[in-house]
Amino acid sequence: MNFDLSSDQLNIRNHLHELLKDVCTPEYVKNCDEQEKPPREALDALAKNGWLGLIAPEEYGGAGGSPLDLAVMLDVLGYHFEELGLWVFRNLTYGCYALMKHGTQAQKDMVIPKVITGEVSVCFGLTEPNSGSDASALITKATKDGDDYIINGQKVYTSGMDISDYCILVARTNNFEKKQQGITNFFIDTKLPGIQVKKLATLGQRAIGTTEVFYNEVRTPASSVLGAVDQGWRGADNYLCYERLCLSAARTGAARAAFEFALEHAKTREQFGKPIGKFQAVSHKLADMRVMLDISQTMVYRYAWLVEQGKDTRQDAAALKLYTAESYKAIADMSLQILGGYGYCMEYPLQRFFRDSRLATIGGGSSEIQRNIIASSLGL
Length: 380
Hints:
Blueprint (H helix, E strand, L loop, with lengths): L6 H17 L2 H10 L4 H9 L18 H14 L1 H21 L2 H12 L5 E4 L15 E5 L2 E9 L9 E7 L10 E7 L5 E6 L9 E12 L3 E2 L5 H37 L1 E2 L2 E2 L4 H30 L4 H26 L1 H4 L5 H8 L9 H11 L3
Parallel strand pairs: 1-4
Antiparallel strand pairs: 2-3, 3-7, 4-5, 5-8, 6-7, 9-10
């Protein structure tokens, strides 16, 4: 495995940095966070410049990029604004990757070109009030009715549902002995009658945030089924592994931004007659953060390579998500500590990294669940 980036991948990084310096400034990010406003202008700029088609097949107007190309892009997006990276990852994972794997030709033709142009956003509805870590215990029900399905139930933490046009909804279509069986994925229109969306107030991730969704006698055509009926759990689990690559890449970029802010402060802030970075207590924190960043990036690249080679496993995805999430949280915390009182002030961005990073070890599969997956692979 050689993780040296190609000239094309270096160009992805450089061109994105130049674009986002103009359209995703620190002031813009601050306003999106404070006003709880999605970074629509930044997303539109990415679409205009062709970036939302990075992994889409060329037949749809995309670039046919690799998982490593995507990781490089999301790292840069996360560096400038984590939530922009998360919005893009959802669109590309659920509006492109999932459809290319399991979608019908009609679903692909309807959605992928519009994801590329930024006309359409897609989210993922899995978690329920009583099935979070035990995700396959979901009870939202889809009942066959002629050529349609009737959906009833409740989802929570469906991030971006209020700004999405479609949602991959994971629902139960049958009850079997094993709870992973009898689950079906649906690619549904978020504006269907009977869908009620409630925005949730959260500690961080406020620009896009997350929602609670109620499904009351929602009728969707059978043509909205994504993949095979009753066999959707394997697909959903696969999407989650791809999601963990995307989350890890974006959060590694965000962690780097927090680190660089703290490093600059340590070089310029003086106490006791010298920069605080000269004190071992501070310099060792920065050294530890640098090591965590290097390991996180290496793990992101390694997992992207495994996906490209078709050699990735749930255990690999769990290890990646666990390490990068815990590192991001630790880096944000130590960076805030280095800024001291300034870090605690809302004027500076470290408080946002601190708030946003706290979700990393909870959402998308908690650190405890990732450890369970890894332990299981060890025969424990």
